From TrEMBL:
Annotated signal sequence range: 1-16
Protein name: Hemerythrin-like domain-containing protein
Keyword check for Hydrolase: no
Domain Hemerythrin-like per the UniProt entry, residue ranges: 63-186
Species assigned in the record: Cochliobolus sativus (strain ND90Pr / ATCC 201652) (Common root rot and spot blotch fungus)
Transmembrane segments: 6-23, 298-315
UniProtKB keywords: Membrane, Signal, Transmembrane, Transmembrane helix
Pfam family, one: Hemerythrin
Length: 316
């Protein structure tokens, strides 16, 4: 006969998982979120597939990159808009959230420069394709570094000055936003490059694999316990009519584990995210209070179930 501990563990696990199936999906429950939301001041990127209907490898690759960039842009916007309104009791968690955004951006930049860009240069046999992109990177890195330095060297969390943080962000926002949009157009334009692989050939398959393999590992390598939950909780499942609600493609239980298992380590940070655990758009807590039943509860219920199961497992 199973022990009480074992039985409790499985009951809690079933409860936590069942929440994912019985609560409505954001794909079919796209309630509007009161302004302001995390779609400003940095404008979000229209995906190339949505804009053109094309499905070539570079349009698809640019679309997947746009999803990553939009998560980063929502992260920027959520920090910028909430910064002046954070209470002292929440400042430590907000700083953790804000520094996670920095690590996400820095890792994304470094991984592009060292892994993705050389691989695409090889596919197209052209080392000049990223010339402007390299310049765009350089244009915002100094300001990004100043942002990180400020947050990392505060005498105490309560010393955070949200208005000053906004001013630091504003200093690199134009170059930052321009680059994150421009890079998507650059990648999509490679479909007309003279050396672009012919569709339905081994070369095209190999080129598609470059984007697919890079995309699968780039966020994970940035940080499973911080950047991954940050990324997933800044993906809006209602974006462009909900057509990307299941992106990135992964089993529901895997996504659940990444948000609620890995995410539980820094659980206090995620209330500042722009979306809930299932991708539903959230009101920003630093700007307007969230109420029971307004979207945050999907993430909250899922998190509580996951946390209970997690601690029971540790105790066993």
């Amino acid at each position: 006969m199973p022990s009480v501990t074992t039985t409790s563990f499985y009951l809690l696990l079933v409860f936590a998982i069942s929440i994912q199936y019985f609560l409505p999906s954001p794909k079919t429950n796209m309630a509007s979120v009161s302004s302001p939301w995390a779609d400003t001041p940095c404008e979000l990127i229209t995906t190339p597939q949505h804009a053109t209907g094309k499905t070539d490898i570079f349009t698809v690759g640019a679309t997947h990159m746009a999803h990553i960039h939009n998560a980063i842009l929502r992260g920027y916007n959520s920090i910028y808009l909430q910064a002046p309104h954070i209470k002292d009791a929440d400042k430590a968690a907000f700083i953790g959230y804000s520094l996670t955004w920095f690590r996400f951006v820095k890792s994304h930049h470094d991984d592009e420069e060292t892994e993705l860009f050389p691989a695409v240069e090889q596919v197209l046999n052209d080392k000049s394709i990223w010339g402007e992109t390299h310049k765009e990177h350089e244009a915002f890195l100094e300001g990004l570094s100043g942002y990180s330095t400020y947050l990392s060297t505060l005498a105490s969390p309560t010393a955070l000055n949200g208005t000053h943080l906004q001013s630091l962000m504003s200093s690199f926002q134009p170059a930052f936003s321009h680059h994150f949009h421009s890079e998507i157009s650059t990648i999509a334009s490679f479909s007309s490059h003279p050396s672009a692989p012919v569709p339905n050939t081994p070369e095209a398959d190999a080129a598609a694999a470059v984007f697919k393999n890079w995309g699968k590992k780039t966020v994970m390598k940035a940080g499973t316990l911080d950047v991954v939950p940050f990324f997933l909780m800044n993906l809006d499942a209602t974006f462009e009519g909900g057509k990307w609600a299941d992106w990135p493609p992964m089993p529901r239980l895997v996504r659940w584990g990444l948000v609620n298992g890995a995410g539980s380590v820094n659980w206090a940070w995620w209330k500042f995210a722009s979306c809930d655990a299932r991708g539903g758009a959230e009101g920003l807590v630093g700007v307007a209070a969230r109420g029971w039943g307004e979207g945050v509860d999907v993430g909250l219920c899922t998190f509580l179930g996951g946390l209970l199961a997690y601690f029971v497992l540790i105790w066993m």
